[in-house]
Amino acid sequence: MLTNRGIEANLEKCQAIIDMRSPASVKEVQQLTGRITALS
User: Fold this and answer.
1) Is 34 within a domain?
2) Would you call 24 helix, strand, or coil by DSSP?
C-alpha cells in the first residue's frame, strides 16, 4: 500500500507469501507471479 508516508507492508499478505512453498515447475512459477501481481 502506498501512502503519503511511503510504502507500508500488509502483514497478512506478506505472511501468505512467506508461508507458500517453493514452486516446482514453470507453471507453478507463472501461477505464483500472477498471485503476487494480484496482491499489488
Assistant:
1) yes
2) coil
